[in-house]
Amino acid sequence: MVFDQAIIVLIQLLTSKILVMKKSFFLGLGMLVLLSSCLKEPDPVPTGEARVKFVNASLTSGPQDFYVNGALKSTTSLPYSASSGYVTITSGNNEFAVTDAGVTSTANAISSYGIDISSNLTLFYFNNATSGHSAGLIPDDMTAPDAGKAKVRFVHLNNFLGTTNLSASISGGAQLFTGLGFAVVSPYYSVDPGTKFTLAAAGVTNAPEVNSGIVAGKIYTIWVDGAAATELTGHTIIQN
């Protein structure tokens, strides 16, 4: 009799444990379903169009081809001092490569940048401070100039000057800036139509006046190089 009662108690205990385990199991399943409903794929990063123009600013180079993510983007090979029009690319991470005309196996310079939607950019291919080549990207401000004015900025690309800084002024007028380092771009300046510019740097003896034919409503980039540490030459790009 006592033995039978003990068996009944044991069966009741086992049954209650099984019920608890079942409840725990189903509770665990409920949590799993809840967690899986919370863990969803992240929203894709939006992409859109951007625009870039290419400039061959390497004095020692032949004509160059410009690639973005392995696709040829320059419609013609660009000789020294030439620039392209804007071409459309996709925003996000982009790899830029520059090669000699017709060469697809070896790049003279490669650089990667994250590109914002609707941005306007200029990629310069230039001789760097170690006598190699670099590809540097700068943003272009397309905001219209003030009424009756033009906007102009400067880029220092004379690698012969080393750490020597560039300065520029309006010919016969105010100083625009001093201390612009190599491979650095200046802010934009508002100038009058017909403005000409004088360039200077320590040790430079040959720096012809820069006459870009400034017109009201236009936006200009003047990049400056030279064939020696004693020379400065200005080259003008019209952005708009």
Automatic annotation (TrEMBL):
This is Uncharacterized protein DUF4397. Residues 50-158 form the DUF4397 domain. It holds the Pfam family DUF4397. InterPro entries: DUF4397 (IPR025510).
